[in-house]
Amino acid sequence: MRRAIFVFILALFTKGVFAQELPSWFAQSLLDLREDIAEAAREGKRVMLYFEQPGCPYCKRLVEVNFKQPAIAARMQRHFVSLDINIWGDRELTSPEGRTMTEKQFAAALKIQYTPTLVFFDEKGRVALRINGYYPPERFLAALDAARQAGDFSTSILKRKPGGKPLALIIDAPHCAACDELNQVTLKHDAVRAQLAKFDLERLPLSADRARALEVGYVPTLVLFDAGGREVLRMEAYFRPFHVAGSLEYVSSGAYRSEPSLQRFLQARAERMRREGAAVDLWN
Length: 284
Fold this sequence. Notes:
10 strands
């Protein structure tokens, strides 16, 4: 009863912060994720954490386009308990392992690099699936179906020759409109081409054994490995040239070693470009 009263009070105080964007079916929570996961499991559901940040155009599109699709809203409510996490936020939460920390500390612990990122937990509190970035509605629906049954998410390591370049691995498929846009528009953008020149570039069809070994389920996917063959970033969503070029630079420059947050790197990159007189359009 006390928990229900507290959640009601919490809803009153947070209404002005979140109600202008998030749909009403997002749950109010004390952010003890152990309890949230256990309660969701008793209802036959899984917990979904939506990591966002103010001013994120992809978050805005997810909320205003995807979450307003009747089929998506129905599936989210039927199978998941949805919670919101601000990657720069200071609200206190308890992780599935029982650790107390702030939202931003938790986002850093999970190595959240893109917003939006959706993290789905299984019934035992393990990360079952991540959606890194914005997916268009049809693809987002397919990802929700996968999240209902998905197992553990793991980082990939490839064998690479010493002293080589980092690797950009593109997984695509024929008759894929998003793949066509990536190949014909994004990868031909001047800033993206300049960064790609610093990588070894390989392509794989989604049907390839290596793609299956990397647990790639969607196209196009761009997986970035460092020179040692360790996966650094996986871009498996809809990204425009600014973010693709910035992500490539984040890996090729080695900035990920000292700056664990891709978002801070991209913000600093945008500020640097503005100081140099360049126009910065996050959607282009």
